[in-house]
Known about the structure:
The structure holds three protein chains of three kinds.
Chain A: E1 3-5, H1 25-38, E2 45-49, E3 65-67, H2 73-83, E4 88-94, H3 95-101, H4 103-112, E5 117-122, H5 152-155, H6 161-165, E6 173-178, H7 182-200, E7 206-211, H8 215-218, H9 222-236, E8 240-244
Helix pairs in contact in A: 1-7, 3-4
Chain B: E1 3-7, H1 8-18, E2 23-26, H2 34-42, E3 49-52, H3 56-68, E4 73-77, H4 79-95, E5 99-107, E6 113-116, H5 121-125, E7 136-138, H6 143-160, E8 163-169, H7 170-174, E9 176-180, H8 187-195, E10 214-215, H9 222-237, E11 245-248, E12 255-258, H10 261-276, E13 281-286, E14 288-290, E15 307-312, H11 319-327, E16 333-337, H12 346-360
Parallel strand pairs in B: 2-3, 2-4, 4-5, 5-8, 7-8, 12-13, 12-15, 15-16
Antiparallel strand pairs in B: 1-9, 5-6, 7-14, 11-13
Chain C: E1 3-6, H1 16-20, E2 26-32, E3 38-42, H2 53-57, E4 63-66
Antiparallel strand pairs in C: 1-4, 2-3
Amino acid sequence: MEKIYARTKTIQEDKVSGFCPGCMHGTVIKLIGEVLEEMNIVDKAACVLGIGCCGLHMDYIAYDNTTAPHGRACAVATGMKRANPESLVFTYQGDGDFASIGLGESVSAANRGENITVIFINNGIYGMTGGQMAPTTLIGMKASTAPKGRIAEEHGYPMHMCEILNQLTAPAYLERTSCNTPANVVKTKKAIRKAFENQLNGKGFSMVEIVTSCPTNWGLEALDSLTYIEEKMLPEFPLGVIRDK
Amino acid sequence: MARVFMKGCEAIAEAAVRAGCRFFAGYPITPQNEIPEYFARRMSEVGGVFVQGESEVASVNMVYGAASMGTRSMTSSSSPGISLKSEGISYCASARIPMVYANISRGGPGVGSIQPAQQDYFQATKASGNGGFEMLVFAPSTVQEAVDMTYKAFDYADRDRNPVLILADGVIGTMMEPVVLPDAKSDEEVAAMKEAKKDWACVGHKLDYPNRAWIEPGHWQTSDMQRANEEAAAVYASWENEVQVEEYKIEDAEIVIAAYGISARISKSVVDMLRKEGIKVGLIRPITVHPFPYKTFDNINYGICKAVLDVEMSIPAQFVQDVSIGVKERCPIETCLSSGGNIISREAIIEAVKKINEKQGV
Amino acid sequence: MARVEIRSESCKSCQYCVKFCPKGVLAIGDKVNSKGYEYSVPVNMEACIACCICARMCPDAAIEVYK
């Protein structure tokens, strides 16, 4: 018998991820690794990890990586790509990192059309610090710093990063995907591949926003978090290609 | 090597380019705008990169990224902007990323004033960011020194894999002086310096886990974090030989001025003026303010020295605390201070020296 | 003929593989791994069609598929 689905070699052979059961960080990291291998560009990969749960895979993946200060991944990636254009530079950031503390760096890098790729994980909550409210937290969704749930009058509304960046002229590619179903996992992988190809082709800023779960801080079983994505997250964060030029 | 007439900020930038700096990111703030402006013009001539970041925070992190690829990289700012950069500097120190930055310091605290000051001494020498890392900190008192220090700073940064700070002030940054510029590194030398860092630079490596590049500004395991800090501390300890200080006429001095940077330059002229009047004054000028030349204070003749006069452009005084560690209570320490952007005057220093002289009797 | 291989030590019992397998090949077993998770096991391997959906959905890269 032939092995037709192999564990990506971009994940260290002997490692178990540090993520919680059902956490889709692991899914996305696996997809990134598969794309790097399929495109034969692992030896060009330079990954900039955000702060938070994103950082949990620094000791899980087997390719070059660095960790940026909280929110600064797009600035660090700017320096890396400009200093060494032949590397494939991509950031891996959560919603607190990319859309809150790093909003300035994120929007500015996109506006410059930096030839980098952003993998943006949106699960509507701060994971590692224990379930605080994120810019992408849904109205009514409970968080440790919004114990009654997000209230629009007090906290404002969830931020839609694809749509915000779509106001800019420079970005090349913006797509929102999810990993809640097999079909969406396939679409996410395609989107990551396209974003990497854009960089190799010098097209400029590409961002894939991936709607994922945080079963632990959502207070749900992993399987129930899939339903939550479908019923609550996706109506607020509709999937699809927002920009492709 | 021709002498040229240059503004301090521009001379610092040119020295960096000649040292092989090929990435600069910065953000406007007075009085250091001529540094990014110079790089904006100059980098394209040498195949380097200039980026105006969206903030100081972004700029220093761009430098963190560029330097992580092995490229000699620099940023600059002035006091409040340096505070914002402290995040990125701390990351560079923790991840052992070589980079150079200049603080063309101004009045503070807060937005302070845009005129020259020396109010960032503690920040520069004791705590430039969280975590207790250390850096070589050079304090030029002339534009020529600023040039020479900047040029050499990149070598120190690469050798130690650590940030290096040029602690200048608004006077050094904005005045024009004749300077001799060092030779420019050739394109081949610049490429070779980058190539030499390829093992650890985050440029992409073959799938070979132990040999991947892993830039680590932190560690999950506390034992790894402690080991990293111990390794860094060993580098800091090796700087004992890097201490630089100028001693000027202290052998017979009855009053020794201690000052650094622009205050020291003004004080040096005062030493000569007062000696003509028969008042035996000397000067100790730390050139590296970290590590600090404490031992140089052992060379004062305490049998005849009435007092050490700390001259600095900071109220309250900061540099005086290092001076007092050096003096070890072997004589009194007086201060002569200005602050908020007021450049210390010769007259004020002369008055302070004479006050000590009269009080103690000749 | 097809077969799935599960690294029991990597499994965290999220059950995505169980839910999405179209043929009911997998189930959560009654044994636990060293981290305390009841890991996924094949209970109906003969039905496997090597569609790889289980492996794609697994967040922990615990599943490999043979055909």
